[in-house]
């Protein structure tokens, strides 16, 4: 086994800038959603996952995988969304232990009202600062890292 491959100064500065950017961007997006719509960023993410599906429903296990959340964390969050009327829960006829999360009309209305301002904020905080080449580079970087994360050997 070889020694640890420490980050050099440039890599460490870049890594820390990325972490700070990610934390601050997520915090600002969360605050904007809360202020404008009463939705959390997590609520918005769940509603996006559901409304992107033609039938507006997903098995809870699929949703947990898509969001990279533990099932217990997602179940607790879905419970809060259920109490607020944003989603419904349906039992799975093929699997007595399985269940579906289903977006309600109230949930659909909430995301439709929240999405325009959310997209404006994403554009204002991220994309308006970048030129076309930088957007392309960001997409290339994201794809490369995602490919690595999806590699079962990683």
From TrEMBL:
InterPro entries: HTH_MarR-typ, MarR/SlyA-like, WH-like_DNA-bd_sf, WH_DNA-bd_sf. It comes from the Bacteria. Residues 11-147 form the HTH marR-type domain. PANTHER family: MARR FAMILY REGULATORY PROTEIN (PTHR33164:SF99), TRANSCRIPTIONAL REGULATOR, MARR FAMILY (PTHR33164). This is MarR family winged helix-turn-helix transcriptional regulator.
């Amino acid at each position: 086994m070889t020694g640890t491959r420490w980050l050099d100064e440039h890599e460490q500065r870049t890594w820390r800038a990325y972490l700070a950017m990610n934390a601050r961007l997520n915090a600002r997006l969360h605050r904007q959603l809360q202020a404008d719509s009463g939705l959390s960023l997590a609520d918005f993410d769940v509603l996006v996952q559901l409304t992107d599906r033609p039938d507006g429903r997903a098995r809870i296990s699929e949703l947990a995988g898509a969001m990279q959340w533990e099932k217990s964390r997602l179940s607790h969050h879905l419970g809060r969304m259920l109490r607020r009327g944003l989603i419904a829960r349906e039992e799975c006829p093929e699997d007595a232990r399985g269940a579906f999360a289903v977006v309600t009309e109230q949930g659909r209305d909430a995301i439709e009202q929240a999405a325009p301002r959310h997209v404006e904020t994403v554009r204002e905080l991220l994309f308006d600062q970048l030129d076309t080449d930088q957007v392309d580079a960001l997409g290339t970087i994201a794809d490369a890292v995602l490919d690595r994360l999806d590699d079962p050997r990683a």
